[in-house]
Design brief:
Length: about 350
């Protein structure tokens, strides 16, 4: 497998992971997004897409033998992918050289989880893993894969539950969106509960406000210097699902983060139905939106025909001294997903 080279000080691949129903494995594909940025002028037409084939899997993962067992996949920084399963097993895959190694066992079983990567004091990435629906009875719903320099290895650490799970009226709610703030704290918005932050240095939760983050799913920060504008980008929680930029640093106890701009990165055919979407940061000033569609308008349950993924390259930056945001669409790649890969997917 070719090495995962860098793009503008970041990365040049977006990783997609699918279930393969032919042999019940999980297939990890590397999508080279370097050509989507290119040197040609920006394409102003949001309907323009290049058809690309799905590349062969760079790696395959075998789930536990028991029926209906699933694996979850999470990015650990720019080059590693961590997989976990319901038997508490951990695998760490290095996309730069294709190496796979066994990691430490989770403290508790996990089913559906969300994750955030935070740079630790030893300049190694650490992975924070939270149940998609935190529950009081799941006392180990929050764990972190921490790199320990003295051991030159990672280990899982149990972390405190979000404090709202102990509220008498709380019966379980979905974590709708999350992001890593500039301080290294993990912010989460839980439906009907509000936004909380977890300070990874102090290992303590704090309520930020009753308001919602303006994103759906994971938001990523585009850092400076060398490009970008130091804001957070994600898929808007508004019905239009556009790319949205917000500044978490402007949030207060009574007001949510300031939305600094929205952008139409893609205008799909009217009969397409959007299943889900994500944003990946690939380098300073460069993002990719990743959107999954059912192209058959009668297939809104995502059962069979015509699944595609569209990856769009976007460059972002500051527009002058007035604090404005510049978002420029480059090219989009449309990849048809085989029917045997159609159901579960991860964008890494």
């Amino acid at each position: 497998m070719a090495a995962a080279s860098t793009l503008a000080g970041g990365r040049r691949h977006v990783h997609l992971c699918f279930t393969d129903h032919r042999d019940q494995t999980y297939a990890l594909h590397h999508i080279d997004v370097d050509p989507l940025f290119g040197s040609e002028p920006a394409d102003p037409d949001p309907e323009s897409m290049d058809a690309l084939p799905l590349p062969p899997p760079a790696a395959r993962f075998q789930p536990p033998p028991e029926p209906n067992h699933v694996m979850n996949f999470h990015p650990l920084g720019d080059r590693r992918v961590v997989s976990i399963d319901e038997l508490r097993r951990t695998l760490i895959y290095d996309a730069a050289n294709g190496a796979v190694r066994a990691g430490p066992a989770l403290r508790d079983r996990k089913w559906y989880t969300l994750s955030a990567t935070v740079l630790g004091p030893g300049a190694e990435d650490n992975l924070y893993l939270l149940d998609h629906i935190p529950l009081r009875e799941r006392r180990r719903c929050f764990e972190a894969l921490i790199y320990e320099p003295h051991r030159e290895d990672w280990s899982w650490h149990k972390l405190p539950q979000p404090p709202y799970v102990r509220d008498p009226g709380y019966a379980g709610a979905q974590v709708v969106s999350h992001a890593v703030a500039g301080s290294g704290a993990v912010w989460t918005y839980t439906q009907g509960v509000g936004t909380y932050s977890f300070d990874t240095a102090r290992r303590a939760w704090r309520k930020e406000g009753d308001w919602a983050l303006p994103f759906r799913g994971k938001a990523v920060r585009d850092g400076q210097p060398g490009g970008g504008c130091g804001l957070w980008f994600g898929i808007s929680s508004a019905p239009d699902g556009r790319l949205v930029a917000a500044d978490l640093a402007t949030a207060t106890a009574t007001s949510p983060p300031e939305v600094r701009g929205t952008f139409e990165d893609l205008r799909p055919p009217g009969e397409w139905f959007c299943r889900n979407a994500a944003v990946v940061h690939v380098g300073r000033g460069r993002l990719c939106t990743v959107r999954f569609f059912a192209t058959d308008p009668t297939d809104k349950l995502w059962k069979t025909r015509g699944t595609v993924v569209v990856i769009t390259a976007v460059e972002v930056g500051c527009d002058g001294d007035d604090g404005g945001i510049r978002m420029v669409r480059r090219r989009s790649a449309c990849i048809k997903i085989p029917d045997y890969n159609r159901l579960i997917n991860w964008v890494l």
